[in-house]
Amino acid sequence: MKVLAADGISPKGIELLQKEFEVVVKDKLPAEELLEIIPQFDAIMVRSASKVTKEVIDRATNLKIIGRAGVGVDNIDIPAATARGIIVINSPGGNTIAATEHTMAMMLAMSRNIPIANETMQKGEWNRKKYVGVELRGKTLGVIGMGRIGSGVAKRALAFEMNVLAYDPYINEERAQALGVKVATFDEVIENADFITVHMPLTPDTKGMIGMEQMKKMKKGVRLVNCARGGIIVEEDLAEAVKQGIVAGAAIDVYTKEPVTKDHPLVGVPGIVLTPHLGASTVEAQIGVSVDVAKGILAALHGEPVATAVNMAPVSPEVMKVISPYLNLAERLGCTVTSLAAGPVDSVEVKYQGDITEVNTNLVTTAAIKGMLNPVMEGEVNYVNAPSLAKERGIKVSEKKEKDAGSFANLITVTAKSGDTEVAVAGTLFGDEGRIVTINDFRVDVDPHARILVMPHINRPGVIGTIGSIMGNSHINISGMQVGGTKDQETNLMVLTIDDDIPEKVLASIKALDGIFDAKLVNFYAV
Ligand SMILES: NC(=O)C1=CN([C@@H]2O[C@H](COP(=O)(O)OP(=O)(O)OC[C@H]3O[C@@H](n4cnc5c(N)ncnc54)[C@H](O)[C@@H]3O)[C@@H](O)[C@H]2O)C=CC1
Ligand SMILES: O=C(O)CCC(=O)C(=O)O
Fold first, then answer.
1. What domains can you pick out in the chain, each with its CATH number?
2. Under a CB-based contact definition with an 8 Å cutoff, are residues 419 and 407 in contact?
3. pLDDT greater than 80 at residue 91
4. Which stretches make up the ACT domain (predicted)?
């Protein structure tokens, strides 16, 4: 498999990928070249310079994953990727400290006139009176967007003895109290803060959130910081407000259009400090995001889920730790029900029993669906497209939970309905090892690997021996065997583990045997 590492990604992550894949490194990648070469690649890693547009995605016939070595994914067309089942991942925490510290640096640089003082000194000037600044201590900092970076800035501002007013429609009071900030409305923040810093993504709600109208409501001498996304503060309005003295100063790292050229409205305005999107540019952050995304790409290319996927329901690391051993088992249970079902599946129920009921099991259910669809679908089914593919095929998916798992510590039962018939397969974990423990009413103990041949048959002497002879004569090695009974003892279920494929003719001859009710092959290599 081939990975494209664009935009000057740190070598640390690239080295990890090179252990398994061919990695093509392109520090500068013009849009036309990206369009031309993208069909070769299974994965792409980008920072913010490369735009992974719908046009790129449409041409990316082999692409399975897009990794954004950073937080913001606004340079990636996520709906287009999702529609194609391409996983999009980012590194939510890898550059948090870098962006937080850059915000503090920008606030200090602006309030103490450091950039202009340096610039004039480099020219041999000594302007002590001209560059008198203001202190942070005792001032009110308005933080809009109290996520990872906003909270980090608030924490550091408190250490500078600032008062912090925070606005975030999604923050709860308890968390704000724990951080030591005062929760406020948007209007309270803009009317009362001496410094305002924004830390949210650019969305239809946040675009242009601070324009001339809001700046006019702000305190005289207010200073603004934007190290989040260009466009949250209207650039033309900010330039005008600083020129007119409505806003005393601004420190900006991000722009509506990057790279910025000389004719940008914010360039050359005295009182505005500009950096060229340097928030994440520290050695540590670039190693962090590169390694995070490389690990995600490795997992995704091995068919495993990635906790930082942005086009799947998010899973916290704590929940992931609990559910990850079950994912493989659930896939194999899904694969088994599809193979044993009498026809196309109309609905599927995934029932959880035992300790696993305490966490969100959506991803485990997705794993079961992935396992159900992969053997019967042409393209690749993965954690991103499995739920929508099931929906497209009209398969109703439901979950059920029961605390009591009987004699097991945990149990997952996948039940598929096809017309009037039903197949139920249950599995459990013994340590980290998955086992199928029931198939319909039959109690078995099957390691779900390679291929299994599942045969309900009459409980009488000679049946098992006949099957053994047929397999032997066809040179098919049986590497495991289980016979499960039911309470009535009239029917048994034979499960043979076989490494090789079984020719259709041999399968037909087994099905035709007297005393064999059915014979179905489950191919776990298909999951
Ligand atoms: N300058 C740079 O190089 C960097 C910029 N960033 C940008 O910083 C921003 C924040 O990043 P994180 O803190 O990691 O994200 P986050 O997801 O942890 O936090 C975002 C916060 O914004 C809040 N929010 C969403 N809509 C809002 C609204 N309408 N009003 C107020 N709050 C709202 C959310 O509730 C959330 O708490 C992102 O846009 C990211 O792309 C991140 C890293 C580096
Ligand atoms: O890759 C970069 O330097 C940009 C970082 C950034 O803006 C982000 O992570 O959202």
1. 2-93+283-301 (3.40.50.720), 96-274 (3.40.50.720), 313-422 (3.30.1330.90), 441-527 (3.30.70.260)
2. no
3. yes
4. 452-527
Q: Is 229 a catalytic residue?
A: yes
443 noted as active-site residue: no
Q: Which atom of ligand 1 lies closest to the CA of 200?
A: 22
Annotated catalytic residue: which of 277, 332, 451, 457? 277
pLDDT digits (tens, 9 = 90+) for 35-59: 999 999 999 999 999 999 999 999 9
**Residue 148 CA, ligand 1 centroid: distance in Å:** 7
The tokens of 352 are what? Answer: 């959880």
What is d(CA 189, CA 209) in angstroms, rounded to the nearest whole number?
A: 13
pLDDT in tens, 296-337: 999 999 988 888 899 887 788 889 889 999 999 999 999 999
Query: Strands 2-6 and 22-26: what pairing?
Result: parallel
pLDDT surpasses 80 at 172: no
Instruction: Name the E strands within 168-217.
Output: 182-183, 195-198
Cβ of 147 below 6 Å from ligand 1: yes
> Residue 526's CB: how many other CB atoms inside 10 A?
15
How many Cβ atoms sit within 10 Å of the Cβ of residue 45?
28
What is this structure's pTM?
0.79
pLDDT value at residue 487: 67
Q: Which of 258, 304, 399, 422 is catalytic?
A: 258
For the record, the structure tokens of 421 come out as 């018939």
